[in-house]
């Protein structure tokens, strides 16, 4: 698709140059929480529980196969292998990304910023390529005539105002139907508290895993002596490598702790509480980010199934619906649809799965080859037979013979 580079918006003249104020608004995506911590994309992703939860959602979406289907006139569906949109969403959305990488980025942007944007490179009425955009550089605007336009600042600094027909936009939960809610904005205090607690623990080890304090004396120290004592103490007793060293105090100096300990502050309990809040925010069960305090072999399976249905599926449904209305023309939109295959994530243990397959074959819903296909195995000869139990016959004969 090298020839498509001429359609790239970066090669066109921009409608309006980006000013220094616009650049500042774009890169300063963050604000200071009550805890005193600035919460932005970088600081949020450096917070381990939040990054772990976001990574779980993004990677689970990226590893699922997605296909474009066409509905049959009567019943059933077929994979629309010859459709260009099928190639875009399942294999190659652009020249530098795989489909897995593209959908990983999509879910990561929706979780972190509430919106995922991609520029649609069009050839006539068909989409040829999807180029992801920085969420902080796109501003959707609803005009008085209810048409949606996007103010886009590209990576080279050029700026343009584009109609909705040129932007592939997956939005998260929205209050206005235009822009999705950002975790950085609406969960800032929870993230700020978690980041502050994490930094507090790091500072503790910088000081040799000991709380801060003061050197006291009844004498009056000259400026020269004060500076010498301060410098000597910091050099010999600050840092993890200096922990547990014996302190030698002179001139009547005494050590007095002036800060509360981690036990008094219930630091660990606060961290656990914040981690649980982040799991609730992302709708990711704690065991997915290695918090196993209340997890057992019995409940992890059910938590995983709940996670697929309640945590991951909303993101997948948003993507599927947006593909249908944004990448397909009006004619194909009627009988084509995109679908992620989540069957692998919904599988239970081997015993429960084998019993399910047995029941479905017994009632005639599945054939042996259907089971083999669900297990990613090749079909066998004669395996397309659908059974009808004898107790379901009418007058001793199958229903279609009566």
Overall form: flat
The span between the termini is 59 Å
Average residue-wise pLDDT = 79
Outline the biggest β-sheet: 4 strands, antiparallel
Uncertain runs with pLDDT below 50, 5 residues or more?
11-15, 20-29
In total, the number of strands is 14
Order of helices and strands: EHEEHHEEHHEEEEEEHHEHEHHHHEHHH
**Rg from Cα:** 30 Å
User: How many helices in DSSP terms?
Assistant: 15
Q: Number of folding domains?
A: 3
Brief write-up:
By secondary structure, the chain is α+β, with helices and mostly antiparallel strands.
Key terms for this structure?
42% helix; 402 residues; 15 helices; 4-stranded antiparallel sheet; 17% strand; 14 strands; 3-stranded antiparallel sheet; single chain
Itemize the secondary structure elements and their pairings:
Layout: E1 16-17, H1 20-27, E2 30-32, E3 38-40, H2 41-45, H3 48-63, E4 66-71, E5 77-79, H4 84-90, H5 99-113, E6 115-123, E7 126-133, E8 138-142, E9 148-153, E10 158-163, E11 167-171, H6 183-186, H7 188-206, E12 213-216, H8 223-237, E13 254-257, H9 262-265, H10 267-282, H11 297-326, H12 330-333, E14 336-340, H13 343-346, H14 350-362, H15 368-374
Antiparallel strand pairs: 1-10, 2-3, 4-5, 4-14, 6-7, 6-11, 8-9, 9-10, 12-13
Helix pairs in contact: 3-5, 3-10, 7-10
């Amino acid at each position: 698709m090298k020839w498509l580079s001429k359609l790239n918006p970066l090669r066109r003249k921009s409608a309006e140059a980006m000013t220094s104020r616009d650049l500042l608004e774009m890169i300063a995506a963050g604000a200071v929480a009550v805890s005193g911590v600035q919460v932005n994309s970088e600081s949020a992703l450096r917070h381990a529980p939040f990054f772990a939860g976001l990574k779980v959602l993004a990677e689970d979406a990226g590893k699922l196969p997605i296909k474009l289907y066409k509905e049959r006139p009567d019943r059933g569906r077929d994979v629309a292998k010859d459709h260009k949109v099928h190639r875009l969403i399942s294999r190659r959305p652009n020249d530098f990304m795989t489909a897995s990488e593209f959908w990983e980025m999509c879910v990561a942007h929706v979780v972190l910023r509430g919106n995922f944007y991609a520029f649609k490179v069009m050839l006539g009425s068909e989409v040829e390529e999807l180029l992801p955009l920085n969420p902080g550089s796109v501003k959707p605007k609803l005009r008085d005539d209810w048409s949606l336009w996007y103010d886009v600042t590209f990576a080279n600094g050029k700026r343009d105002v584009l109609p909705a027909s040129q932007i592939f936009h997956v939005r998260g939960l929205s209050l206005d139907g235009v822009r999705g809610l950002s975790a950085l904005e609406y969960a800032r205090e929870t993230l700020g508290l978690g980041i502050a607690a994490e930094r507090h623990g790091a500072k503790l080890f910088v000081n040799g895993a000991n709380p801060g304090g003061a050197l006291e004396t009844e004498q009056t120290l000259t400026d020269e002596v004060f500076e010498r004592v301060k410098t000597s103490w910091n050099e010999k007793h600050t840092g993890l490598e200096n922990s547990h060293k014996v302190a030698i105090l002179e001139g009547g100096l005494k050590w007095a702790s002036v800060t509360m300990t981690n036990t008094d502050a219930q630091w660990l309990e606060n961290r656990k509480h914040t981690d649980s809040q982040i799991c609730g925010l992302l709708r990711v069960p704690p065991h997915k980010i290695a918090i196993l305090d209340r997890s057992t072999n019995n409940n992890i399976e059910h938590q995983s199934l709940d996670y697929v249905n309640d945590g991951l599926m909303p993101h997948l449904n948003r993507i599927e619906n947006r593909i249908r209305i944004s990448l397909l023309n009006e004619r194909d939109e009627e009988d084509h649809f995109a679908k992620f295959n989540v069957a692998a994530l919904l599988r239970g243990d081997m015993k429960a799965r084998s019993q399910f397959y047995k029941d479905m074959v017994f009632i005639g819903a599945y054939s042996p080859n259907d089971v083999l296909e669900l297990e990613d195995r090749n079909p066998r000869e004669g395996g397309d037979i659908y059974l009808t139990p004898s107790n379901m016959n009418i007058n001793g004969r199958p229903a279609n013979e009566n």
